[in-house]
Amino acid sequence: MSKQKPTRPISRPRVKDDPKSLDLDKNSEEAAGQFLTSNQGLRINDDQNSLKLGERGPSLLEDFILREKITHFDHERIPERIVHARGSGAHGSFQVYESMAALTRASFLQDPAVQTPVFVRFSTVAGSRGSSDLARDVRGFAVKFYTGEGNFDLVGNNMPVFFIQDAVKFPDLIHAVKPEPHNEIPQAASAHDTFWDFISLMPESMHMIMWVMSDRAIPRSLRMMEGFGIHTFRFINSKGKSRFVKFHWKPLLGIHSVLWDEALRISGCDPDFHRRDLWEAIENGDFPEWEFGIQIVEEKDEHKFDFDLLDPTKIIPEELVPVQRIGKLTLNRNPDNFFAETEQVAFHVGHVVPGIDFTNDPLMQGRLFSYTDTQLIRLGGPNFHEIPINRPLAPIHNHQRDGFMRQMINRGHVSYEPNSLGNNDPAQAPARDGGFVSYAERIDAAKTRARSKSFVDHFTQAAMFFHSQSPTEQGHLINALRFELGKVAAQPIRERMLYQLSQVDDGLAEKVAAGLGVKVPVKIDGPGNMSIPADVNPKDLQSKKFTGKPFISPALSMANTVKDTIQSRKIAALAADGCDDGELAAMKKALMNAGAQLKVVSPHGGSITGSSGKAIPVDFSLLTVASVLFDAVYVPGGDAHAASLSHEMKAIEFVEEAYKHCKAIAATGAGFDFIKMTRVGEDLEDGDAKSKSLVNHQGVIGGRSAPIAKVATAFIEAIAKHRAWDREQKVSPIKEPENNRK
Ligand code: HEM
Q1: Going by C-beta distance under 8 Å and a sequence separation of 6 or more, which residues neighbour residue 157?
Q2: Which of 254, 127, 247 lies closest to 190, judged by CA?
Q3: What is the pLDDT of residue 2?
Q4: Beta bridge partners of 251
Q5: Has this prediction a pTM greater than 0.85?
Q6: Residue ID of nearest Cα to ligand 1 atom 9
Q7: How far, in Å, is the centroid of ligand 1 from the Cα of 120?
Q8: Could you confirm whether 84 is annotated as catalytic?
């Protein structure tokens, strides 16, 4: 019996035909219109006072209501993930474009009419649960497909390679990057001695270092990053034929990042920037989308590359094996409850379905052990597969029993196999009925603790990545290394890192060195690779310096990404009392028609009065935001408004910071005079301010009398390009080094 009719909407909209959504509903709770109860269902009459001996007397042990409430509260926290603790999740669905039956028997890849529900969790790796979204870090990109044949988890990252080649080094890598154990500093940052000490001794990490020092490590949005399965997997078709496969996620909004200077500011202004962006995009109906890509290599071609397919520090360049886009992932529903869903979800590389199998990549092999092992303690026992977000849509029948928090009530007295008392059910499934059969790979080998010689080249692909970047991206990568190594206190670590970088590219090492004020050593004491077993000669595992002509892979540069949409971008309109509300409304309409949002940012909250006397609601006051939280800035006309902005330090900073970060800036009427008096004006000709024609120079757009429609069109084009990188040389040029070798 309920208390009254609910007055508020009782649940967020469900996706009607989504079976996982309906499955989760079985465990959902709706408080609207209900009485407050204890965990035993007893209605609570007084939730304000504990039971006491007299109004001013001591509390009584008898107060079972107080004890239940406080006991539960005392136990609300569970351990955070040992890695990837900070994350954000969303529900969605996946649909294949056409049947992949020729390549794999996986049922969810057979029929374009089938929508497979998914839950996706994005994460950073090093920081704790409450750390900033904008840390320089790899982003986890984990997808749980609830297929008819059981859960398939694709537990990947936004970078296609990894730091290490063998899982046995994972605890060392994570210990090195996590806050240092004596003082627990720094949080969510690799810029410290232990990380770079480890990396400088592990040249196998050099390719991954190029990726994490690139802007890929500071995405503009979780919706604007690629995803990769990293390891080489196998696809097996119904005839049992195996092919190698690499998995990719390609964002339809393109791949975009922020600048490091912005990342630092965002971490202060809005540490939940990515989480909020994902949440708001889904609430606004801007559903994030990725295409699912595969690279297929025939078994017979396993050894045709000059790297090993089993080596997770290597990619197969898309120019050698193109990525076929075979389906689409759409995220369309936010979780109802962060803890129950995003925190309790448990991914595992070992969750596969018939038609998908593993290879002997030694990093993947170790992962196959690690996930269940860690989740046993993180989620408190062996039954976490029963937690609603983890339970498959496919039915579960087996003889596993008991353990903490068991939900399933197994009937009957048989819990072993084989049995005659229960008709030997549940029965093993033949392959034709979906029984999983591991691929029968032929292996003729001695048992050994060793690394294949085919894993030894650590610099060729690092050089490929560096040389495939645009000059702007290279500059950012160099500055990232200058920042990170600049935070390293121990000089020998810096020097060893410069030596390792010089094995990738001398110019890169010298430029980083110039920023540090250190010379690049021509040689170092001891072997360049310290990740060597006790009885192995380091020379046998020494990677040669890269000296050849680098392979250029245009697919690796974000400069070549999608730049024709401003869908879901957030633009600030800087406005004060007296702003030209006609221009503001016209710009808002144009941006909204192009799929973006315009938010009014003013010196104060509440509302401002436009030039026509109308009240304009303010979205944010200048005190609560900064331009780093927006993609672009528009300043409308209006003499009084422009005059008051010009006296507002924060308004000037707002525009100048957007300018420094190479964002599109548009201004009309007196708004143009305002931006001209800021640093933006340095870029404009004197005549520009008076001219009726449109100024369109390195992402600065507008004019004193430029027509708003023309300004809006040029502004939209400039925002779609993401940034006016050609402006960067002017605002923060990268200095060429002088002789920097010792
Ligand atoms: C290609 C290399 C790797 C990738 C792409 C990767 C990716 C991920 C991702 C995305 C998560 C977060 C999952 C979530 O959102 O809940 C994660 C968690 C984790 N990873 Fe990895 N990882 C890699 C290597 C490893 C290795 C080598 C190990 C250990 C041998 C490992 C152990 C773990 C553990 C213990 C967790 C926490 C899981 C949990 O508490 O649920 N990872 N990994």
Answers
A1: 138, 139, 140, 141, 227, 228, 230
A2: 127
A3: 55
A4: 290
A5: yes
A6: 140
A7: 14
A8: yes
